[in-house]
Amino acid sequence: MNIVIYGTGGVGGYFGTRLVQAGNNVTFIARGRHLEAIQKNGVQLKSIKGDYLVKPANATASISEVKDIDLILICVKTWQLAEVAKQIKPVLNDNTMVISLLNGADNAAILCNIIDAKHVLGGLCKVISKVEDFGIINHISYEPTIIFGELNNEKTKRAHLLERTFLNAGIKTELAEDIQVAIWTKFLFISTISAIGALTRATLGEMIIIPEIKKMMRKTAEEIAIIAKAKGVNLPEDTIDNQFKIIESQPYDATSSLQRDVLDGKPSELEAQNGAIVKMGIELEIPTPVNDFIYYSLLPQEKRARK
Length: 307
Hints:
Layout: E1 2-6, H1 10-21, E2 25-29, H2 32-41, E3 43-47, E4 52-54, E5 58-60, E6 71-74, H3 81-88, E7 97-100, H4 107-112, E8 120-133, E9 136-150, H5 157-168, E10 172-175, H6 179-200, H7 204-208, H8 211-230, H9 239-249, H10 257-263, H11 274-284, H12 289-306
Parallel strand pairs: 1-2, 1-6, 2-5, 3-9, 6-7, 7-8, 9-10
Antiparallel strand pairs: 3-4, 8-9
């Protein structure tokens, strides 16, 4: 399969490398010194599931150089998604599939507003990995997983083809029965831990052992579940309990990418996570006081970072 990884960070670098390892033709989209390092030294993956070096690596800053694309996996930050959609639009052929693996609940809708909806499948991933240095990806923990599906949940021929492609690459894969439930479950998980981690400047383990913070995290999740239900997403009743079991099973020193971005003074996914819940709450006239507090407490720093 001819695949483009748009954004060679912790997520794109991991999944792209495994897809190369399985024999797919993969082009990595990167920029700056990261791109230079990849072009010179390849993509170096360090992983608890086994290291791998892609060298030489097909890497460029411009997707316009890539032809006959079967699949584009978008792995940038959520706030960059609309611009990426504009960049990929000219290179799409009739059969190109596009999946966003980003955090957020509205990624497919953002894509469908810019490119033809026939190209778009819903998707998400689960992995804890990061760029350790230019050209070097470090997979730290968690079984790397891709969950995806057609937006209407139909089990199409192309969906089954992608399922086989991911499985052949050794990637834990789920063709979702209801992709919106899967997306909102991941959204609830990440939005419960990320911004509050930035606010407290604490690791996941440090937060969980303080009852008052854990209670605040729980209320954050409850508000998200209420919003999801109001939007017609049928989250199972045990979703929050199950997500907290996963949260409590993570390494004590785990942090989220949003948290690391905030602490580094970089633009983050705050708007796409707790900020999105605040805005949905306003639109639906549903109070979201805990998400409000977290979002507005971090908003001044977010605005500074975006300048």
